[in-house]
Design a protein that fits this description.
With 404 residues, this protein is of the alpha/beta class. It is built from 12 helices and 17 strands. Strands 9-16-17-14-6-13-8-10-11-12 form a 10-stranded mixed beta sheet. It has a 5-stranded mixed beta sheet with strand order 2-1-3-4-5, sandwiched between helices. Helix 11 crosses helix 12 (338-346). Bound molecules: ligand AOF and zinc ion (ZN).
């Protein structure tokens, strides 16, 4: 593979990365259209249901594209979904070659896009060198489309002894400024942020993207290619650290699992309509007896409160995730307390562990996964694709688990 080919694909990956959090339930894809060594145009997946990256690049081209090459981060689709097949548009355009790093995990595509382009005489080049990078960006969509559940990133800041709060509940701040800034970058790419009902009562959190509220010397490395990733070279994290700009307007859906004991409309989570409370059907009677039952009814009628079934916390989590899948959530950040996280763990629902280890020791307090846990070490969950990155004095530890 030529160096220029790799550079064009890297440009396409950056476009795909930049669109994450704005295209669901469609994956964010990037495309770069090149002819005679000149970039004619670029494209990325438009907000849900609109044009795909390839069509967007074709439309943006200022010069004729026939005979050109397209670099696209995912196999072009060949099916009629909300939009017509990209393969039709590409064949009609007269492009000569299409470079792709990976096939589309969507069973409706899964290799058929490549076959369709090839049978029309287009040279499809598989860029194996970029497969791992493209795969790191498509993991959420793969989980969504193959397993019918959102991809869950469990993000937590903890002391070296694995605690997210002291016994008195104090937790601010365990990690450093740079780590917390990185979390806001991450939030801007997520489709949802999930917390437990306890956090609503305890913190009255905004769960917003507040990139502008951070400053300081330790933020200087962000937006530059100077980060060292040890272990697995995780391209999602690489781009998260290296990207210079973020879309702070991309507001993730705020999801609360459980109905907080007292609800008031002036809580910060009700600041806008991007809020979903998920309770259980078992609670229905007790909710009707509460003083705030009118507000609860209002929330339910407007779709901001949904009750799901489930006999155990893990079943409730699974049904909540089924619901979020139905609402088109590809990637959700789990930011809740230790018990909620343990329920997600028990439901086998955590896909990526993103833990910030701070140089503090609490010597007790709340464990990051506060449940019974596995019985034996042999039965513990073995993670894969482990990366570590020094973020100021903290260590960011990332690894994948679950079924994705
Ligand atoms: C592409 N380019 O930029 C994206 C693709 O319902 P539709 O028509 O929007 O199709 C959605 C499917 O298309 C989605 O599930 C995934 O398989 C693929 N996404 N394909 O050619 C793109 N985002
Ligand atoms: Zn398409």
């Amino acid at each position: 593979m030529e160096t220029a080919d790799l550079a064009y694909m890297e440009q396409a990956l950056k476009l795909a990365f930049a669109g994450m959090g704005t295209t669901s339930p469609n994956p964010s894809v990037g495309a770069v259209l090149v002819r005679d060594g000149e970039v004619l145009s670029t494209g990325s997946t438009c907000a849900c249901g609109d044009d795909h990256a390839e069509v967007c690049a074709l439309r943006n081209a200022v010069a004729p594209v026939a005979g050109g090459d397209l670099y696209v981060t995912l196999e072009p689709c060949c099916h009629h979904g909300k939009t017509p097949p990209c393969t039709d548009a590409l064949i009609a355009s007269g492009v000569r070659r299409v470079f792709i790093p990976i096939l589309d995990p969507n069973p409706r595509v899964a290799g058929r896009g490549v076959a369709c382009l090839r049978s029309a005489g287009i040279d499809v080049v598989m860029m194996d060198e970029m497969a791992s990078a493209a795969n790191d960006l498509i993991r959420p969509f793969k989980k969504y489309i193959v397993h019918d559940r959102p991809f869950i990133v469990h993000k937590a800041a903890m002391s070296l002894d694995g605690r997210i709060a002291t016994h008195s509940g104090d937790s601010r701040w365990i990690s450093g400024n740079a780590s917390r800034f990185l979390v806001h970058r991450l939030r801007s790419l997520a489709d949802a942020i999930i917390i437990g009902k306890g956090t609503v009562v305890k913190d009255d959190p905004q769960l917003s993207v507040r990139l502008g509220s951070f400053s300081g010397e330790e933020l200087k490395p962000f937006g530059r290619g100077t980060w060292r990733i040890d272990g697995y070279r995780n391209h999602f994290l690489r781009l998260l650290l290296e990207s210079a700009e973020f879309n702070a307007a991309a507001v993730p859906l705020r999801v609360v699992i459980g109905v907080p004991d007292v609800l008031r409309p002036d809580l910060k989570i009700f600041g806008d309509d991007r809020i979903l409370l998920i309770g259980t059907e078992k609670q229905r009677n007790s909710l009707e007896d509460r003083e705030d039952h009118r507000f609860l009814r209002e929330l339910e009628d407007s779709g901001r409160l949904v009750l799901v079934n489930g006999d155990s916390p893990a079943q409730v989590v699974d049904n909540a995730l089924r619901l979020l899948h139905g609402r088109g959530i590809l990637m959700a950040l789990l930011e809740g307390g230790g018990r909620l996280a343990a329920s997600f763990f028990d439901a086998n629902a955590i896909d990526q562990y993103l833990y910030f280890l701070a140089p503090r020791v609490i010597g007790g307090g709340v464990p990051v996964l506060n449940g019974r846990g596995r019985d034996t070490i042999a039965g513990s969950l073995r993670l894969c694709d482990v990366s570590t990155i020094a973020i100021g004095d903290d260590i960011l530890y990332s690894a994948y688990g679950g079924i994705s």
